[in-house]
Amino acid sequence: MVNKEEIQNQIIQAVETVRRTNPLAGSITNTVTMNFVANAQLAVGGSAAMVYLPDEGEFLAKAGGATYINMGTLLPVYEETLPHTAKVLYDTGKPWILDPVAIGIGTLRTQLLRQFKDYKPSVVRGNASEIIALAGLWGLDGGTDVSNVRGVDSTDSVNAAKAAAVALAKWTGGAVAVSGETDLITDGNLIVFSQGGSHFMEKITGFGCSLGGVAAVYAAAASPFIAALTSTAVYNLAGNRAENKADAPGSFQVQFLDELYKATAEDIADNPLEIEEV
Ligand SMILES: Nc1ncnc2c1ncn2[C@@H]1O[C@H](COP(=O)(O)OP(=O)(O)OP(=O)(O)O)[C@@H](O)[C@H]1O
Ligand SMILES: Cc1ncsc1CCO
Ligand SMILES: [Mg+2]
Fold it and tell me: What pLDDT was estimated at residue 28?
């Protein structure tokens, strides 16, 4: 039997531990949304640091409680930085979050994402099309050979990524979070649907990226599954609240960061979630 109350207690623990301990979660992430990722990490109580170079990725992997890797805007140096950092994370057993942004574009991205299969990210976070394409690239159930990602955007529904998400979580032994109007989080045994958020989140770039960065902050203090659930829940809660205070995307983003900062552990745990067994 699934104990929802136990999951909610663990969410509360994760939020409180992060606010008390200010864990470092380093990132190698895209240049479009880097600032938003760092600010969201700080708003929930974490500490942020962004780097590009191989030895600096290794340094943060070892120094931080968890690491965020986002493939958004690849640079030549990432051919060395990303596999090097991911291997250090895997070898040291440190949690790491992979956001396979724009999977399908270019050969370096494909090559790097293929390599990550063996370094088993603790949380894979992406929109539905990215999750389906990654399962396809790794030869897992629910995946497709051809990416339906349109640039960085999804063309698939969250539900269409269910089998891929479960297969990825079973492969990594961690968790997978699929974002969309309703979010889906799985550890391969349970599937949780998290409600909330706002349509404005599609009108500002980086809500997905920053969600991944926040998941890394929580992964420094909780299991991958609870980290994925907690980050998704606080995003849905803060998105709802910000929508009530803003009437356009720019002011929404400002209100959202404030609500991320203000959300209590209990309110985050109480954000609507539905649980089913795989
Ligand atoms: N229509 C919507 N209604 C409610 N919440 C939404 C909606 N669309 C996205 N969200 C929320 O926005 C956040 C980011 O999800 P999204 O699927 O847009 O990520 P993404 O496509 O990877 O974004 P990006 O690549 O721009 O960072 C999640 O918390 C998700 O719940
Ligand atoms: C728009 C964009 N392009 C590369 S990364 C990024 C941020 C959203 O994923
Ligand atoms: Mg994205």
Answer: 98
pLDDT of 146 reads 82
Q: Is 69 helix (H, G, I), strand (E, B) or coil?
A: strand
Distance 218 CA to ligand 2 centre (A): 23
Q: How far is residue 10 from each of residues 4, 6, 83, 169, 179, measured CA to CA in Å?
A: 10, 6, 32, 20, 21
Residue 126 Cα: closest atom of ligand 1: 22
Contacts of 145 (CB under 8 A, 6+ apart): 136
Which amino acid type is present at position 154?
S
Q: How far is the CA of 205 from the centre of ligand 1 (A)?
A: 9
Cα gap 191→176, rounded to integer Å: 10
Best probe residue, ligand 1, of 29, 101, 155, 179 (max atoms within 8 Å of C-beta): 179
Both ends of the chain: CA-CA distance in Å?
12
* Domains assigned to the chain: 4-277 (3.40.1190.20)
Using CB atoms within 10 A of its CB, is residue 147 exposed (0-12), middle (13-18) or buried (19+)?
buried
Q: How far apart are CA 96 and CA 27, in angstroms?
A: 10
Q: Over the chain, what is the mean pLDDT?
A: 97
- Could you read off the pLDDT of 141-169 as tens digits, one per residue? 999 988 888 989 989 899 999 999 999 99
Task: Output the known binding site for substrate.
Answer: 50, 206
Pocket test for ligand 1, best of 30, 34, 150, 202 (most atoms within 8 A of CB): 202
Q: Tell me: the pLDDT tens digits for 223-264?
A: 999 999 999 999 999 999 999 999 999 999 999 999 999 999
What residue ranges line ligand 2, CB within 6 angstroms?
30, 32-33, 72-73, 101-102, 152, 205-206, 208-209
